[in-house]
């Protein structure tokens, strides 16, 4: 530990994690694509939220 070198096991674990994360991101993106038309967020609501943040 602390030497900065990765064992083969660490490299494999890193690859598995990256694969899982990229698959999860793809899944989330496809869900957003599917629901894009169904949940329109009005610009008015966005502006209201934004101005509340600035006021705080």
Please characterize this protein's 3D structure.
The protein has 56 residues and is mostly helical. The protein has one domain (8-55). It has helices at 8-35, 43-55. The longest helix has 28 residues, at 8-35.
Strand residue percentage: under 5%
Number of discrete domains: 1
Helical residue percent band: over 70%
Rg over C-alpha atoms, rounded to the nearest angstrom: 20 Å
Keywords:
mainly alpha, elongated, 73% helix
Please outline what is shown here:
The protein is built from 2 helices and no strands. It is mainly α.
Secondary structure layout plus pairing:
Layout: H1 8-35, H2 43-55
């Amino acid at each position: 530990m602390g030497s900065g070198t990765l064992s083969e096991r660490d490299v494999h674990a890193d690859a598995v994690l990256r694969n899982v994360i990229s698959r999860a991101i793809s899944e989330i993106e496809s869900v957003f694509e599917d629901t894009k038309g169904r949940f329109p967020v009005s610009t008015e609501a966005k502006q209201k939220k934004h101005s509340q943040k600035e006021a705080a």
